[in-house]
Amino acid sequence: MSSDSYTGAPAPGHARAAGAAPSWPVTDAVRQALAIARRGCDELLIEDEFTLKLARSAATGTPLRIKLGLDPTAPDIHLGHTVVLNKMRQLQDLGHTVIFLIGDFTSLIGDPSGRNSTRPPLTEEQIDVNAKTYFEQATLVLDREKTEVRHNREWLSPLGADGLIKLASRYTVARMLERDDFTKRFAGGVPISIHEFLYPLLQGYDSVALKADLELGGTDQKFNLLVGRELQKQSGQEPQCVLTMPLLEGLDGVDKMSKSKNNYIGISERPNDMFGKLMSISDTLMWRYFELLSFQSIEALARFRAEAEGGRNPRDFKVMLAQEIVTRFHSARDAERALEDFNHRARGGVPDDVPEVALSGAPLGIAALLKQAGLVPSGAEATRNIEQNGVRIDGTVVSDRALKLEAGVYVVQVGKRRFARVTLA
């Protein structure tokens, strides 16, 4: 096995002999681990430092401490969150210690990253409810038995006012305004609350408390992750490296995946819904999803692209991706059933698992029925779907916005995926 030597700082907790510079071999296994870390990432800072950490870990048998923090601002995790969770799992499978940090304290502030306005802080009750589901969903990707779960209330609550003041003294306003979103808001006269400056400091302090070797996050987290490096240096620790992952576009292929944009796929959604949403993405966006969500090898993805360029139907690959994702979060049998259901719908059939809805008020206008059945969020959206021939009653397209339905049982469809069996009284 070929190897180079890498000279650098000693492992934390290990003293360096006077005048001695440790040499850690960069073996083929270390290079392979580095390639796994770099796959699909946006940036790895500082790569030379991380190579040293990997080499030292391999030589000493000491796993790296790899941190990912998520604020429980909503009860569900979507596929966009799993981009960075997938990377955590890859590093976990290499034998490193992964720390799933639930930001139950920092959620009280609200992460300002990527926002053009102050994020409304959540209540402790909202945070506790959301946090209960976060780890359960995260372990659909991470190995539950090998994951260290922490809450930053552990060290941030005891910090107190004096500790917070000392922490705030370690960073300047000028440095904070280097953050892109703060810069734009300040230049545009958009208010920035003082408490928002505390968020990057507290996230950085998490890295000090956990003695992290590597912190992961989305590209919008880069500034916060670098604050962690700086605070670790000031605390006499070896600074963490930073790995940022791209933000996954939502189903529209434009905005990042977000519940507020309603362009997301939740990892706890029903298999058929998850499959159908994945099949709805564009052929171009499909490759982006393969790169960031699939566990297929780089070589396999290159082969798929070549086959598509050679004339193979892109739908074949989209089915492959959808089945892989549904299998991961449900089961292989669920993935097969979801494919069968999707093909059945494509032939104009009605899915087997149509939700049952009971309504009263017959005769009821079609727009009101669609809204009350939960098939559309508003009457205006109901009207828009009718005008676009997107509404069917028992398989027949509805074109009359003034239609009123008498008492009875109807299979109602909006678009390709939204169905309800409505019993109207």
Automatic annotation (TrEMBL):
CDD domains registered for this protein in UniProt: S4, TyrRS_core
Enzyme class: ligase
Main location: cytoplasm
Cellular location(s): Cytoplasm
Gene Ontology MF, one: tyrosine-tRNA ligase activity
Entries under InterPro entries matching the protein: aa-tRNA-synth_I_CS, aa-tRNA-synth_Ic, Rossmann-like_a/b/a_fold, S4_RNA-bd_sf, Tyr-tRNA-ligase, Tyr-tRNA-ligase_bac-type, Tyr-tRNA-ligase_bac_2
Name this polypeptide is given: Tyrosine--tRNA ligase
